[in-house]
Fold this protein.
Amino acid sequence: MVLRGITKRFGDKVVLEDLNARFLKGQTSCIMGPSGCGKTTLLQLLMGFLTPDEGTITGVPKKKSAVFQEDRLCEPFTAVSNIKMVLGRTADTGRIRDHLRQLGLEEAALDKPVRDFSGGMKRRVSIARAVLFGGEVLFLDEPFKGLDAATREQAMDYVKRHTKGSTVLLITHDQQEARKMGGQLLAMAQRGEP
């Protein structure tokens, strides 16, 4: 995926200006920078939710998978049902349950509505849903936010294990997360900073 001369404005506010970047196929890229520097805007441009005001984006695969900053789950549905909404009703329930268990969710919780889940449990359902969808590129916008240290390690190991050889773009504020996930680092700054 290649971005050339990308500028994005919201009204009078310029969020991205003349951004050039290349994300290699089959590689993990970690995007870091202060809040408000345009990291999420960059992902939304790559996902096709926003259009750049200037510049071009090429090479973005059609099949995309994402973990957003919000969990975006159907609260009355179970964890398994939330994932089947994306994979299809005929998706292998045993495989889904196995992935959720790999993320530390207990068997007893898998048949409860996600509205009864803690924030960290919902986060892990969102991660499993994105990984199981198996997009050609996986966009992760602060996917481990709100997880305690042990659960965060478990979730990072899970993502690394199931995305070997895949294109992964991870937004994080945490240098340890970036080191653990590996790959190239894109450090973004606030407009006007070097």
User: Anything to note?
Assistant: The radius of gyration is 17 Å. The chain has a mean pLDDT of 90.
